Amino acid sequence: MLLNGEYFSIFVSMKKIAVFASGTGSNAMNLIRYFSDNLNAKVHFVLSNNESAKVLDSAKKLGIKTYCFSNQQVSDGSFLVELCRKEEIDYIVLAGYLRLIPKKLIDEYPKKMINLHPSLLPKYGGKGMYGTNVHKAVLESKERESGITIHFVNEVFDKGQIIAQFHCSIEEEDTLFSIEKKIRILEHSYLPKVVETVIMNETLF
Ligand code: GRF
Question: For FRET with 100, which of 1, 15, 68, 71 sits at 20 to 30 Å CA-CA?
Fold first, then answer.
């Protein structure tokens, strides 16, 4: 119980998240919104390698700083490390980012760089397995379920330590479009919460 004149002083350090995205950015937007009134973390900037990526305009409209660099620049580890140090970034989330992350940046963010993948890894992962390519392969293989994987990033595409997976069923009548929709619902429901859980429980991972 607090007595007259006494108070607790709690110092909460706000973590800064950088989101990397190459396309539409529905997940990036979802993360920005989720963390906009969060006391523990905020999306500090969105980075893209694609100057016509819709995510850049959408993020700007929400008042988030954006960066767009050429493929040559984003494959330069030192350049990205310097940027993230300058911006004091604590966590990086890859949400639809299609370039391989340079080793220097991975080494700078051990267990602090998180990727979202639209399948149940290790199935349907690896180079070229992104977006509808994944769902097409799932459909052609007549899988009865699919889902999303949220994992830490290492040097091999989609091979880092898995943090969480969420499943959905696939029915006879499902199409590319309907699978994509089911996956999108899982992504939007769970990615922000998992990112927050990692940030709040660093020592658990
Ligand atoms: C998502 O399906 C994600 O799993 C994958 O790329 C897609 C990005 O979608 N890595 P969006 O740009 O966030 O809408």
Answer: 15
Domain boundaries, the chain: 11-204
Q: Which of 117, 135, 167, 188 is catalytic?
A: 117
Catalytic site residue 44? no
Q: Which amino acid residue places its CA nearest to atom 8 of ligand 1?
A: 96
Q: Distances from the Cα of 127 to the Cαs of 27, 83, 158, in angstroms?
A: 21, 26, 8
Could you tell me the fold of the domain covering 11-204? Rossmann fold (3.40.50)
Instruction: Supply 180's token pair.
Output: 């994509």
CA distance 199 to 180: 28
For residues 121 and 136, give the distance between their C-alpha atoms in angstroms, rounded to a whole number.
15
Question: In whole angstroms, what is the distance from residue 55 CA to residue 95 CA?
Answer: 10
Q: pLDDT, tens digit, for every residue of 109-138?
A: 999 999 999 999 999 998 889 989 999 999
Q: Tell how far the Cα of 11 is from the centroid of ligand 1, in angstroms.
A: 35
Dist. CA 73–CA 42, nearest whole Å? 25
The SS3 assignment for 200 reads helix
- The minimum-distance atom of ligand 1 relative to the CA of 148 is 4
The answer to whether the Cα torsion of 76, 21, 66, 194 is positive or negative is negative
